[in-house]
């Protein structure tokens, strides 16, 4: 096992992809876009076994914390580690050494961007998909950290309830206020001033909280912008007493499966339908509706809708390019699949595909489904004409698959120095495969091979 520092965009992608909300992780780690890094610095580390990444950790030096508490503490976060004391020790020592080089005497974690973000290791209440800004560690992590010499210094409790269980507010507050107290949503047209009110309420409320560091104005503005990207100012409510900020509550739009709800569509019917499809994920809908678009704009022609009732809930529906077919996904791991024939209104199971961590359809009329499973040295192919599965054995573990316009299949192995397997066509044999390695692959998929 070897620990290496992240020094490239590819390395950052490898670091972030292990976490459930990878896009949010990438934004939080962006030292140019995230205001937190204006007063803090970080170093990211990957733990490799051969070419495979098996662990991650971030070391964080927060100058604002040192100025506020004078305790010489640094932090570590974004810890992803197998249940192996040697692996945990290697990662933690790499982070500790980086902090020692900057004058820190203690390390505290797991903690991401301060107390307002994900922090700590979950001890109980594990879910298949963690809530946003909640710990997402495996159950073995607290014991593993104790085995490498760490101890618990603080405990927090989180509470959850269904919407139906939330008590209704007093009638006076439901009208918007009572006496000197009013509560309201933020004004998106004046988000700069609203961010200052949010900042005042947040810092005052947390002033005496354990380990608290005041949020900066730039961080407050960023948090308000994050919420407004969802297009609904009702996600942030302010309470004011005689015009002064007295409280704040922020909600995150989370769907039934724990995923962050999609942002407001940018426009167009297709964008709205895509957002609807995303919003329906995780709900137990065991039906597919087929709408005939022929004559859909004619007022006197009623829409033709056919409904198929399936044996399992539908997680996603993916159109096959150039064909009247669609792949129906029944679970978020993409292991239970079906092929929908739109013209015949029938569905057949897709067997032998395995878990689709990455997939694509062949460019020649979507004739093949190509898929790869992380940890399996094979690329799977299903001929959509007869649903016959095949696979091609690989020399290295795959991370992504791509179908090129030329009909070739590219399997990316996630090597930062460049390594792909090229199949000249979807039905190619293993002895026809070509392995390209030893050079940077940036932009190669934009070229005709």
What do you see in this structure?
With 449 residues, the protein is of the alpha+beta class. The chain folds into 4 domains: 2-147, Gcn5-related N-acetyltransferase (GNAT) (Aminopeptidase, 3-Layer(aba) Sandwich); 169-250, Aminopeptidase (3-Layer(aba) Sandwich), CATH 3.40.630; 284-350, no CATH class; 357-449, Beta Barrel (Thrombin, subunit H). The chain is built from 9 helices and 23 strands. The chain has helices at residues 9-16, 22-29, 63-69, 85-100, 141-147, 171-174, 191-206, 217-228, 269-280, and strands at residues 2-5, 40-49, 52-62, 73-80, 106-108, 177-178, 181-185, 236-241, 244-250, 287-292, 304-309, 316-319, 325-329, 337-341, 346-350, 358-361, 368-372, 378-383, 388-393, 400-403, 409-412, 419-423, 434-437. The strands form 6 sheets. A 5-stranded mixed β-sheet has the order 1-2-3-4-5, with helices on both faces. The protein has a 4-stranded antiparallel β-sheet with strand order 6-7-8-9. It has a 4-stranded antiparallel β-sheet with strand order 12-13-14-15. Strand 20 and strand 21 (409-412) form a beta hairpin. Helix 7 (191-206) crosses helix 8 (217-228). The chain is globular. It starts with a strand and ends in a 12-residue tail after the last strand.
């Amino acid at each position: 096992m070897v620990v290496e520092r992240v020094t490239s965009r590819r390395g950052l992608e490898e670091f972030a992809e292990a976490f459930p909300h990878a896009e949010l992780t990438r934004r939080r780690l962006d030292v140019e876009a995230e205001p937190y890094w204006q007063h803090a610095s970080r170093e990211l580390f990957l733990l490799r076994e051969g070419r495979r990444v098996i662990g991650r950790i971030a070391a964080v030096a927060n100058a604002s914390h040192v100025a506020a508490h004078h305790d010489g503490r640094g932090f570590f976060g974004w810890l992803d580690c197998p249940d192996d004391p040697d692996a945990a020790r290697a990662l933690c020592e790499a982070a500790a050494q980086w902090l020692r080089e900057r004058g820190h005497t203690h390390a505290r974690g797991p903690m991401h961007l301060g107390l307002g973000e994900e922090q700590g290791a979950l001890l109980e209440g594990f879910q298949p998909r963690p809530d946003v800004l909640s710990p997402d560690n495996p159950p073995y992590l607290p014991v593993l950290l104790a085995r490498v010499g760490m101890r618990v210094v603080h405990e927090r409790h989180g509470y959850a309830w269904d919407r139906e269980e939330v008590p209704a507010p007093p009638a006076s507050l439901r009208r918007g206020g009572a006496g000197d107290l009013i509560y309201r949503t933020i004004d998106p047209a004046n988000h700069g001033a609203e961010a200052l009110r949010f900042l005042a309420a947040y810092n005052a409320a947390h002033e005496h909280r354990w380990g608290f560091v005041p949020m900066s104005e730039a961080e407050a503005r960023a948090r308000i912008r994050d919420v407004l990207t969802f297009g609904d100012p009702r996600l942030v409510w302010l309470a004011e007493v005689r015009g002064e900020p007295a409280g704040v509550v922020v909600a995150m739009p989370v769907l039934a499966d724990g995923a962050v709800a999609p942002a407001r569509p940018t426009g167009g019917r297709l964008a709205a339908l895509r957002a609807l499809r995303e919003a329906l994920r995780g709900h137990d809908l065991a039906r597919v509706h087929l709408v005939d678009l022929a004559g859909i704009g004619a007022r006197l022609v009623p829409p033709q809708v056919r409904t198929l009732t399936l044996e399992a809930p539908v997680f996603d529906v993916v159109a096959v390019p150039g064909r009247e077919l669609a792949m129906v996904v029944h679970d978020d791991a993409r292991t239970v699949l079906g092929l929908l024939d739109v013209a015949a209104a029938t569905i057949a199971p897709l067997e032998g595909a395995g878990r689709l961590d990455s997939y694509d359809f062949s460019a020649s009329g979507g004739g093949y489904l190509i898929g790869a499973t992380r940890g399996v040295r094979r690329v799977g192919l299903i001929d959509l004409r007869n649903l016959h599965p095949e696979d091609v054995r690989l020399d290295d573990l795959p991370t992504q698959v791509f179908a090129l316009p030329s009909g070739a299949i590219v399997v990316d192995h996630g090597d930062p120095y460049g390594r792909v397997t090229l199949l000249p066509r979807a039905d190619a044999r293993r002895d026809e495969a070509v392995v390209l390695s030893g050079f940077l692959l940036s932009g190669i998929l934009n070229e005709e091979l």
